[in-house]
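[job 4471] stage=fold_predict status=RUNNING
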Amino acid sequence: MGLYGVMRTSVSGMSAQTNKLSTVADNIANVNTVGYKRAETEFTSLVMPSTNGAYNSGSVASNARRFVTDPGSTTFTTSKTDLAVSGNGYFLVSDTAGNIMLTRAGSFVPDANGDLVNSAGYYLMAAPAGSPISARPAGTRTPAVGS
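[job 4471] inference complete, writing structure tokens
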């Protein structure tokens, strides 16, 4: 094994450990972030073929795996508009341009119009109609689209 092989092995190991430290740092930084899902780093050993009796060192690859489908912990709140997903599923939310996104974070508050929005300003959507879910008092009329 030559100097190049030693350097390749060392650099791949350091790069893999850097990814692991980044994953741990993300988990620590987001420990109190609503809806954050943990991540883990997986390592894979790469074996190089030996040629002409010469030894070729291997290297290491890393892959960060995010657990976005794992259920998060549910916590009691005093807000009547906080929601939680039980089992598989996501909340459909949209920005002001109408782009639809998915989230499992269920902390919503009514805006000035009574529509439920999260801390990022995304509106909670109803799945079938695609219109915002409203926190208007019972018995009040929701204006028709286009009126």
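[job 4471] summary: Residues 138-147 have pLDDT under 50 and may be disordered.
[job 4471] exit 0
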